[in-house]
Amino acid sequence: MNTRIIRRLAVPAAALTMAATATLAGVGAASAHVTANAPTLTQGGYGVVTLVVPNESDTAATTQLTVTLPKLKSARPEVMPGWKTTVAKDPSTEEVTSVTWTALPNTPGVPVGEFAQFRISGGPFPEQESVSLPALQTYADGKKADWSQPMTEGGEEPEHPAPTLTLPAAEEGADHHGGSTTHGGTSSTGTASTTSTSASDSATDGAARWLGGVGLVVGALGAVFGVAALTRSGRRGGATADGDQSDRGDDA
Q1: Confidence of residue 171 (pLDDT cuts 50, 70, 90)
Q2: How many domains does the chain have?
Q3: How far apart are CA 138 and CA 100, in angstroms?
Q4: How many angstroms separate the Cα of 194 from the Cα of each of 77, 87, 247?
């Protein structure tokens, strides 16, 4: 009977373990894309754009990132220790077309299992609802990940989607330079704080989902071990009862 109980409980426990594993794998896959966010940026305005770049390689660090921009009048990368930045411009218009970050020699770049945030302050961005920012990620072993595939409405997400900004329309009479940026692209503490908070919230949500999956696994294993402990206790109790009956027989 005890063996049957253990078997019955072991089946749902195994199912819970498999479900938790699938959940964890899904979280890893979903968070591996290069993404872009700009909480204060509006259509036709200036602002700070943050590129979140996770390292997908199991063996090599990310050593270079190039992001293509929609020909901005101004674009200035944030200072990043250990990285060299190069701003490319259209020679005929002097508009910024891309920014490249390259890890300096003897620096870690973006190590395996980690991520980094690359920021640009600039504008004006196009007056449209969404703006694509294709990015090329290069690893220390020479491999590259080209994040440039367009998103299709109602279709499945491509393997390497381009980072995309969703821009709200600016309010009538609002300053297109944004409440926390100047024409030169210099950001204030307010914008940096908002961007940092957004990234922090995203990381917290991911951590919570990971912990939830781990909790399912631990709970399932605890149920199995608990039943096993009760079974061993029952066997010991049975053996003691048999011994007491034997002793009474001898006394008689």
Answers
A1: confident
A2: 2
A3: 11
A4: 17, 25, 78
Q: Kindly state the average pLDDT of the residues 185-208.
A: 42
pLDDT band at 216 (very low <50, low <70, confident <90, very high): low
Task: Count Cα neighbours of 46 within 13 Å in the Cβ-side half-sphere.
Answer: 21
What does pTM read for this prediction? 0.60
Q: Is the dihedral of CA 109, 144, 50, 102 positive or negative?
A: positive
List, as one string, the DSSP characters of 225-247.
HHHHHHHHHHHHHHHHHHHHHHH
CA angle centred on 58, ends 52 and 64, rounded to 5°: 45
Identify whether residues 83 and 162 lie together within a single domain. yes
- Cα separation, 87 vs 24, in Å, equals 38
Cβ contact 49:123 at 8 Å: no
The residue range of the domain holding 166 is: 34-185
146 and 87 in a common domain: yes
Q: What is the distance between the alpha carbons of residues 138 and 164, in angstroms, rounded to a whole number? A: 20
pLDDT at 173: 65
User: Could you tell me which of 133, 137, 148 has the C-alpha nearest to residue 115?
Assistant: 137
* Total Cβ atoms within 10 A of residue 222: 11
Determine contact, residues 73/124, Cβ cutoff 8 Å. yes
